[in-house]
From TrEMBL:
Keywords: Magnesium, Metal-binding. GO terms for molecular function: metal ion binding. It comes from Leptocoma aspasia. Signal peptide: none annotated. This is INPP phosphatase. InterPro entries: Inositol_monophosphatase-like (IPR000760). Its cofactor is Mg(2+). Mg(2+) binds at residues 14, 16-17.
Amino acid sequence: DTGVSPGDVGIWIDPIDSTNEFIGGREDVAAIEGIAPGGLRSALVLVGAFDRHSGVPVLGVINEPFFQRDPQTHRYTQR
């Protein structure tokens, strides 16, 4: 329960970073100690909800849309 009525909730979707990486579609950037420094695997998306009257955030989810690519289907899984 966010404490905010559904009619007072605003939603935003924000590509947190790596927009240029997404546009470039680079898949050849190796992870360093499990962290992707560039390329598609570094792209993150934030989906958030906020109280439209106060602007206070009430919920947020971060997604990695290009977490892992299946070598056979070439499709990505996300997390």
